[in-house]
Amino acid sequence: MHTMLALLLFAAVHAGRTSEAGVDPVAKVVELLTNLKSEVESEGASEAATYNTFACFCKSETLAKAGSIDRADTKKAKLEAELESLAADDQDQTYQISKLTEDLGQYQAELKKAQDVRNADNQAYAELNADLEKAVSSLKAAISSISGSKSFAQTSDAVRQSLMIADALGETPQNKVVQAFLQGDAPDSDYDFHSDDIVGTLRDLLSKFKAQDSKADNEENSERSAFANAESKKKTQIRKTENALDTQKTKLTNTESATATKTGLLTESSAKLHDDTLYLKDLTGQCEAKAREWDQRSKQRAGEIAALGSA
Fold it and tell me: In which band, very low, low, confident or very high, does the pLDDT at 5 lie, cut at 50, 70 and 90?
């Protein structure tokens, strides 16, 4: 209001000093005030247009940035949930890898132990089979020699060897003629040597060793077949475990890669959210300050115009 009085006094003084002869000073003052009022209104309209532009910017920029912040909040929450899920996957896959590795070691150890037992059993069979085959062969040769009506001198070595092999295998003949022969006593005659005591004993031994050989072969074949079946199942179990282990390792690699990617995205998103929040806070402060300033200027200008109008 003081400013308006000063303007009016200035206008009156200026009109009085510059008025020409025949010019009404009051009319001159009215003209000056009218021009001043128009100037103030024009400046007000210009400032209003500028402020409207700024206000529109504030509104659109605030809405845009608020929307960006909402989207960033949503994205951040989603990434955090995904990372939490990935962490659970990582823990489970790590456990599965540890468990499968332990299982694989156990299965491989079981297979190795079974193979060692089978190899030992096969070695024992091979040794027994060689002894039985040798006994059968020797007994056949001895019986053939005696049956060929050869003399004691011609066949005694073959017979003695076959009987010694039988004795070594736990089949010691019990009849007296054979016992005497094994102890080094020669039969009284070729007849005694060719008697049923020796021949019968040899044939009984041959029959026993053939039966033992056949039994050993059957047991070996049965054990070999059972082992082959068990070995195949164990190898299948090992192969499946290895495949499952490879699958879990691939999953863990993918999980770790996804975790690294999403962690980077979360860091980037959090940084952008932080920047946008600070920017919006600063923008809101500036816009509110400008609005208060405009409100004060509008009231002041309205007062000036009203005063000029009244004057």
Answer: very low
